[in-house]
Specification:
alpha/beta, 10 helices, disordered N terminus, eight-stranded mixed beta sheet, globular
Length: about 270
């Protein structure tokens, strides 16, 4: 029985580190593609930008939703198409979507770890620190200078991208107003983020922030997401609005598409 649980946990970890590819039936929406030469991650990064229909027909400025795994062969098409549908149905306000195409996903989305075994799945480089600096200091200013944007910013991610979302929420909460994470890989570094959640929030800035996260049936992840939800229930943080969606009937590879609509509706409405 122990061997079976270990095998299931290993499968979950490997899945959460794997590079995601969107199914070929996702319609690729009309979008812009930019290339930013970064001095912080020391490479060129391809950025895909989708603007809502009203962007071209008005002079309005719009809030922005950022996402890693944002390549055309990754999660960008289906999130852009979902935003378009929800905007048409008036279920969310119009948002610009900014997708960051991956080069080395495991490096960029994982923070530091003191667990040697973690190196079997992702490098122990704290690459997330540089990637977060790239977003804050190079990408966001570039988007703000190129497009008509509001100050309101959100970020969405699943699996390792979800880990990056949660880590950013705890370490640099003021960077975004809204955080959305599906099946975040909170097993990383012996659940360091979960174990230190209370301390992180005690030192968090007093800024109105929203957090939506979900956990599927992956054993190694669901334990951590449920524990994080239990911790948040005990904390009376005056400027944090949060919700947790426990999804035991979803698998690690189905939860993003299964929960994206309700996540966006809850998170992107004021």
């Amino acid at each position: 029985m122990k061997k079976l649980l270990l095998l299931l946990s290993l499968c979950g970890i490997l899945a959460s580190c794997a590079k995601h590819q969107a199914p070929i039936n996702d319609v690729i929406p009309e979008h812009d593609s930019l290339t930013i030469t970064s001095t912080l991650v020391h490479e060129d990064r391809v950025i895909n930008v989708w603007t809502p229909p009203s962007y071209a027909t008005s002079s309005d400025s719009f809030p922005v939703l950022y996402m890693a795994d944002g390549g055309i062969k990754e999660d960008f098409p289906h999130i852009a198409n979902t935003l378009a549908q929800l905007i048409v149905e008036r279920k969310i306000p119009p948002y610009i979507l900014v997708g960051i195409e991956n080069t080395d996903r495991r490096r960029d989305l994982s923070g530091s770890s003191q667990v040697a075994a973690d190196e079997e799945y992702c490098p122990l480089t704290d690459g997330a620190k540089n990637f977060r600096a790239f977003i804050a200091e190079e990408l966001i200013p570039n988007i703000d200078s190129t497009y008509r944007t509001q100050e309101q910013k959100a970020i969405i991610g699943e699996s390792l991208s979800g880990l990056f979302v949660i880590e950013t929420f705890f370490l640099q909460q003021s960077l975004f107003d809204t955080y959305i994470a599906m099946d975040p890989s909170l097993w990383w570094n012996d659940q360091y983020l979960v174990k230190n959640a209370t301390a992180f929030l005690e030192n968090a800035p007093q800024k109105q922030t929203k957090l939506w996260f979900a956990g599927a049936s992956a054993h190694d992840i669901s334990i951590a997401t449920n524990e994080l939800a239990d911790i948040l229930k005990t904390i009376n943080h005056p400027t944090l609005m949060w919700t947790y969606s426990d999804e035991p009937n979803e698998q690690h590879n189905t939860i993003f598409r299964a929960t994206k609509e309700k996540a966006l509706i809850w998170a992107l409405n004021k």
